[in-house]
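Example 9 (inverse folding). The structure is encoded as follows.
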């Protein structure tokens, strides 16, 4: 496989991850954040630099993509917990790709770490019940 083919395949990996994240967010009613990811996926697919992913719209605080939660109320349903887990896994995969391509930032790594900690805590809680 040529270097060009690898870059094309890698772009399709980003587009796929961003699209799956957008779908989960849209199903959760987070249409604005889903739209942000769809726009970024289109930009990556059209050849823009991965640097377009380094935006507060994705990694910032309140209202950002990674700040969205599927868990509402004291006892969220199992489906919401499963969707939160899926979303977190996609965030981890996205940051892993960005890390492999040398463009992950400390903020991105911090968000990956947060999801991995949440996952570990959920597993401990589940194992303890």
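The amino acid assigned to each position is listed next.
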């Amino acid at each position: 496989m040529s270097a060009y083919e690898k870059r094309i395949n890698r772009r399709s990996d980003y587009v796929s991850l961003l699209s799956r994240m957008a779908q989960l967010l849209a199903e959760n009613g987070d249409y604005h954040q889903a739209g942000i990811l769809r726009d970024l996926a289109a930009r990556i697919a059209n050849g823009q630099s991965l640097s377009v992913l380094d935006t507060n719209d994705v990694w910032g605080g309140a209202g950002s993509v990674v700040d969205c939660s599927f868990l509402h109320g004291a006892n969220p349903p199992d489906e919401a917990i499963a969707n939160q887990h899926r979303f977190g896994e996609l965030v981890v995969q996205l940051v892993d790709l960005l890390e492999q391509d040398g463009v992950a930032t400390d903020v991105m790594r911090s968000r990956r770490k947060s999801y991995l900690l949440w996952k570990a805590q959920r597993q401990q809680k589940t194992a303890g019940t």
